[in-house]
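Translate structure to sequence.
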């Protein structure tokens, strides 16, 4: 199994990266979140997952080990294949996904292309217990899930999305706010200032 690749990016064609490692070019499929983190770097390391089928060997790559861990949890869910798992991780960041499952927010999960309401509910049922026990290397991801202390955060996120912000942008803006006593309106105001 190929677990990690470090090399030079030859081509970026989302969701695919052509990565040269030791003179060999690997085609690696990555979620959009990994593309955003790559920036303009030419040399990168990707944590990889190899899927072997009778007609193909496909490499999936992730900038963070936590994303790879979540990807593996997603593909364990019956009916969720690697492409759908990649779409979920492209649509939601780690904290958003963990919070959506913890708070049973099937509407947010169903916004992912290829995921309907029933599949979103199935994801929540199958992942809820597993994600609570999951040990992630980034403490921030763990902390956000363990206690999304302010119940108004979800409403504020939905309001920001209604204003045209993407899910990841809205969550990033709200995660920068440390005060758990703010109302929905105050959260939105501060999030817009953090933009």
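Result:
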């Amino acid at each position: 199994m190929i677990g990690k690749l470090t090399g030079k990016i030859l081509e970026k064609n989302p969701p695919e990266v052509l990565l040269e490692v030791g003179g060999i070019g690997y085609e690696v499929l990555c979620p959009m979140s990994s593309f955003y983190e790559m920036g303009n770097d030419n040399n990168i390391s990707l944590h990889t997952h190899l899927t072997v089928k009778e007609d193909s060997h496909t490499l999936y790559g992730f900038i963070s080990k936590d994303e790879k861990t979540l990807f593996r949890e997603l593909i364990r869910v019956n009916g969720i294949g690697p492409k759908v798992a990649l779409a979920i991780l492209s649509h939601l960041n780690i904290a958003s996904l963990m919070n959506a499952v913890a708070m049973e927010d099937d509407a947010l999960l169903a916004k992912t292309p290829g995921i309907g309401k029933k599949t979103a509910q199935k994801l929540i049922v199958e992942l809820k217990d597993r994600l609570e026990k999951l040990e992630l290397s980034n403490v921030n991801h763990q902390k956000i899930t363990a206690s999304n202390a302010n119940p108004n955060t979800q409403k504020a996120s939905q309001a920001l999305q209604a204003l045209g912000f993407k899910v990841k942008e809205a969550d990033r803006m709200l995660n920068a706010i440390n005060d758990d006593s703010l109302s929905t309106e105050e959260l939105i105001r501060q999030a817009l200032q953090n933009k």
